[in-house]
Specification:
- It is built from 35 helices and 12 strands.
- The protein is an alpha/beta fold and about 1000 residues long.
- An 8-stranded mixed beta sheet has the order 7-6-5-8-9-11-10-12, with helices on both faces. A 4-stranded antiparallel beta sheet has the order 1-2-3-4.
- Helix 8 crosses helix 10, helix 32 runs antiparallel to helix 33 and helix 34 packs across helix 35.
- It is elongated.
């Protein structure tokens, strides 16, 4: 009884150990992703080294532990060492990165040597703990068996179950609890502390065992295992070790294949990966639990293992079909859930269920095999050293499976066929084991297993086909399991890191996607209307040509469609353009864009490097005049590390004097707080940065290392560019100025308003929170609202140059161009009384209000109608007052010609004076006149105009150098003026601006 209680204590400790072990595996993926550059590569290396180290540790344990008397004490010491190493891992890693990037990689000009160094050195960081972790299972199993030798199967199954169960919870806790709360350093230290606690707990158990040993007469120490090896053991041991190797290989082929395909259904996020990992490990855990429960009744462990192998193969074949259906399950889930925080929680729960449906059955049978194989050897007199040997063979097989899947099987046959091949290997192994147990006898079970394998293979091959139109749909974003009718998929490739698809819509628009997430879309010819993406990619290439005095050497991070590289090469200024793309399939797939990206493929100045940006830049210490960074969305696993202070510092170190960075940031599927953390990181390294908006949801940040020089607009007049740029609304300096949001002062105030901390490699708040923003459909466009909300905030506070509306080219993709067009239409209506719907563009909602305002103003505004008049004035002025420059305001809001001032109510006159002050950009008058309007009761002046006047007064006070007035206004009237969503952000933004000036009077921003 006493030993049973101590055994339960050991199982409890092993749960905690498994919990800590998966923290290490998860966090190592994040750390090494910073070195290897892609989450998929990091996960592959971590899996390989983690399992390899554990194999070595298990082998060492099998060789050495049999001579150790106090195995539980040895286990405790190992856990203590693991914990201590975990406590010091972070500072060691930081020192390693600095040494690698500053000393080693610059000295290595060969990509092969650089990659070899990264993989070997990265492996060495994990090897000590991995080896020690590999020793824990065989040593604790042997130590526990010495306490309960009459319950071998229960011990093995129980420890395997407990460690795997802890690991499953560790994976979930890392992503959803520890990383958000503690960051990577704190999470790693937590794991170290847990290992130390386990070590101390094991020491306590050892003390209890040695202090009061159980007498042999008690029966607790009576062994069910033979003391001498059987005659069958040598042959059996060879078969079991090979079988353990094979099942280890196939299990991890399954894991990688499942993750790759589920990424396309659930989205490639940190949350989805950890949910998949937990589902896989949970299956392993319950397989061990089944063995624990049934061990006493199992007479022939090999025969049970044989059936487990066959069922594992059959379940894996079924999983291929389940994966094909998972897109439809996710589509139903997306359509059923509200886009809220609660909805995302339910989506995560649904993702877990989908992962379990795909992974759990095969993983369950995989979890049975290791305890059963070990039990078979122990019952044949193999001794406790067999525990380590089986574990070592299994984990060695896992390494081979990981490497073969990523570097051989996927490139050769794709993910789906790789899964089917692994399933056949498992079933074949099971059939061999059945034959081995009953040589020469074809039992009914053997025949049925063979027939089932054939039937299930046909089932998976036929019904498990993955429709390319499903893989390209991006169901986790669109809630559609299949792309629209008429869409064709001419290109699909399972690359080493992701699945790339290129699709062609019914209108000919070509789209290229990574794991179902669109990365670029282009019209097939220059004669067709451009897509929104085209504007962003062309502007990303054109900006540095204009803003840098001599952009000879340019680097582009991310191939995408190749259009940015194509644009850069449209100018003779760059002597070389190096494009770094980590997935070769993206480069190959983008060829479908044809002549639209021709120069990127054919110009001899264009150089492709299939590599990680950090590695490429570090090799030979390469430096550039311009770096254009075009990563995918920050919610994609691993991408957010390209938006951190550390990465920006790294990039700055690879710029020549006077160099600049152009950073593409997607404002869609992101919120203001997350965008602000990334902007804060960039400003820490590049204080002189300015923001541009290219379309409704994409931003470009131009970050300089030197003072701005006069733009070289002549760079855009060369034949190739002069044909391509005007088509996307970039044909003149005014079009670039129109898209400029603001400079350093504006960006710094944006960061302060969000109270954001600089995004760091080691505190991945963006990758942890952006998936939720994606699900909710959030946008980080609040900063844009201060440009076109009707009050000239940026123009007054940061001296933003407003482009005359008459010089702006209308562009359906440009928010500011649309607002300019609407403002011109309002101007035309007020000056000439016209009502041309077409002039109002795609949003004619202000037309009826403008016409109503004209009718209300034809004669004296009645006292009873002043409230309505001010409501109309609010709507019309907010659509035109900040969008028109002063010269365009004459007769509109400056000395308005559409209304006579004679005999008008005083409220009307005061409102006209306030609007006239804003039209003239007269800060002092803006404040004074707005304050007058604010004094009127709500029954006279509309609350919608009052909120506009409130913002106008704050701007006037700040622009005239009186932040104290702005703060006093906010304190006295802020709670009484209704602030709607239109001006809510502007209110917070101005309050932050005023507070900053008040606290630091000498600071201009």
């Amino acid at each position: 009884m006493r030993n049973a209680l101590l055994g339960r204590a050991l199982i409890g400790l092993f749960i905690v150990s498994g919990f800590a072990g998966l923290i290490y595996q998860s966090i190592w993926s994040h750390y090494l992703g910073l070195v290897l550059g892609h989450a998929a590569y990091a996960q592959t290396l971590v899996l390989g080294i983690f399992m390899g180290g554990m194999a070595l540790g298990a082998w060492l344990a099998s060789r050495r532990s049999t001579g150790w008397r106090n195995l539980i004490l040895a286990y405790g010491i190992i856990e203590l060492i693991i914990g201590v190493v975990g406590l010091v891992f972070h500072p060691l890693f930081v020192g390693y990165v600095d040494f690698s990037q500053q000393t080693v990689l610059p000295a290595l000009s060969s990509p092969g040597l650089a990659h070899a160094y990264q993989w070997i050195s990265g492996a060495l960081l994990m090897v000590p703990q991995s080896v020690l972790l590999g020793m824990t299972f065989p040593i604790l199993s042997a130590g526990y068996l010495r306490l309960a030798p009459n319950r071998a199967g229960e011990v093995l199954g129980g420890l395997y179950f407990s460690n795997s169960l802890g690991a499953a919870f560790g994976a979930l806790a890392t992503a959803f609890l520890l990383l958000p709360a503690l960051g990577m350093p704190g999470t790693m230290m937590t794991a170290g502390i847990l290992n130390i606690v386990v070590g101390i707990g094991a020491w306590v158990v050892w003390k209890l065992v040695t202090a009061d040993p159980v007498p042999a007469s008690s029966g607790e120490t009576t062994s069910e295992l033979p003391s001498e090896p059987s005659a069958e053991l040598p042959r059996l041991a060879k078969v079991v070790l090979v079988a353990s190797f094979v099942t280890g290989s196939t299990s991890f082929i399954y894991e990688i294949g499942w993750v790759r395909l589920l990424n396309q259904a659930l989205g490639t996020t940190i949350h989805s990966f950890e949910l998949m990992l937990a589902a896989f490990i949970l299956g392993l855990a319950f397989g061990g639990w089944w063995v624990r429960r049934k061990a006493a009744s199992i007479k022939d462990a090999i025969r049970y293992a044989a059936y487990a192998q066959v069922f594992m193969g059959l379940a894996a074949l079924v999983s291929v079909v389940a994966l094909a259906k998972s897109f439809h399950w996710v589509g139903w889930l997306m359509q059923s859930l509200a886009r809220t925080d609660s909805g995302y929680t339910l989506f995560s729960g649904g993702s877990a269920i989908v992962s379990l449906l795909v992974m759990f059955p095969a993983a369950f049978f995989a979890g049975m095999t290791l305890p059963l194989f070990t039990l078979a050897l122990l019952r044949n007199g193999g001794g406790e050293q067999q525990i380590g040997r089986v574990y070592a063979a299994n984990t060695l097989g896992a390494i081979v499976g990981v490497l073969a899947m990523v570097h051989l099987l996927i490139p050769l046959m794709g993910v789906r066929l790789s899964l089917i091949l692994a399933a056949l290997a498992d079933a074949a192994l099971g059939l061999y084991l059945m034959r081995y147990v009953s040589p020469g006898v074809r039992t009914l079970g053997y025949a049925l297993a063979g027939l089932a394998t054939l039937a299930f293979t046909a089932f998976a091959t036929i019904w498990g086909k993955h429709d390319p139109r499903v893989l390209a749909a991006g169901v986790f974003r669109t809630a559609r399991a299949v792309v629209a009718d008429g869409v064709q998929v001419p290109y699909l490739r399972d690359g080493k890191t992701a699945t790339i698809t290129a699709s062609v819509g019914g209108d000919g628009t070509i789209n290229i996607s990574t794991n179902g997430k669109p990365d670029a879309s282009l019209a097939p010819t220059l004669k067709q209307k451009p897509t929104g993406d085209e504007i962003t990619m062309i502007m990303a290439g054109a900006l540095p040509l204009v803003m840098h005095p001599d952009p000879k050497e340019v680097a582009v991070i991310g191939w995408g469609s190749g259009l940015t590289t194509h644009t850069l090469l449209g100018s003779p200024l760059p002597e070389r353009v190096d494009t770094i793309e980590i997935e070769k399939g993206m480069y190959d797939g983008a060829r479908v864009f044809g002549d639209r990206v021709k120069r990127a493929y054919e110009d001899p100045r264009s150089k492709l490097h299939v590599d990680d940006a950090r590695t490429y830049f570090s090799m030979g210490n390469r430096k550039f005049d311009v770096i254009v960074s075009e990563p995918s969305n920050p919610w994609v696993s691993g991408v957010a590390s390209l938006f951190t202070e550390e990465f920006y510092s790294f990039m700055r170190g690879h710029l020549k004097p006077g160099g600049m960075v152009v950073q593409w940031v997607q404002a869609y599927e992101l919120n203001d707080e997350l965008l602000a953390t990334m902007v804060a990181a960039l400003l820490e390294v590049f204080p002189d940065s300015e923001l541009y908006v290219t379309n409704g949801g994409d931003l470009l940040i131009l970050a300089r290392t030197a003072e701005a020089v006069a733009p070289n607009w002549a760079a855009l007049t060369v034949p190739d560019l002069s044909q391509e740029l005007p088509r996307v609304g970039l044909g003149s300096p005014e079009q670039f100025a129109l898209r400029r949001v603001g400079g350093p002062a504006l960006l710094r105030n944006f960061v302060r308003t969000a109270r954001a901390q600089a995004h760091s490699d080691f505190y991945p708040v963006v990758s942890l929170n952006a998936p939720r923003s994606r699900f909710k459909g959030e946008t980080a466009t609040s900063l844009l609202s201060i440009i076109d909300n009707g009050v000239p905030i940026s123009e007054m506070l940061e001296k933003r140059v407003e482009v005359p509306a008459q010089l702006s080219q209308y562009d359906v993709h440009s928010r500011f161009a649309q607002s300019k067009r609407t403002a011109l239409a309002i101007r035309e209506s007020l000056l000439n009384g016209g009502a041309n719907v077409e002039e109002y563009g795609d949003d004619p909602s202000l037309l009826p209000q403008t016409m109503s305002l004209l009718r209300q103003s034809e004669s004296r505004v009645k006292d009873s109608e002043v409230l309505l008049w001010t409501r109309l004035v609010a709507s019309v002025s907010q659509g035109s007052l900040s969008q028109l420059v002063s010269s365009e305001q004459q007769g509109v809001w400056s000395d308005p010609a559409w209304i006579s001032r004679d005999e008008q109510p005083q409220a009307v006159l005061d409102v006209l004076d306030a609007l006239d002050a804003t039209a003239d950009r007269d800060a002092g008058r803006m404040y004074a006149s707005a304050m007058k309007v604010l004094d009127y009761p709500d029954e006279v002046v509309s609350v919608f105009l009052k909120e506009q006047m409130f913002i106008q007064a704050m701007v006037g006070a700040l622009a005239s150098g009186h932040p104290d007035r702005a703060l006093a206004l906010d304190k006295d009237r802020g709670g009484r003026v209704m602030i709607s969503s239109r001006f809510n952000y502007a209110h917070a933004f101005l309050n932050t601006w005023a507070t900053t000036l008040q606290q630091s009077p000498g600071q201009k921003d």
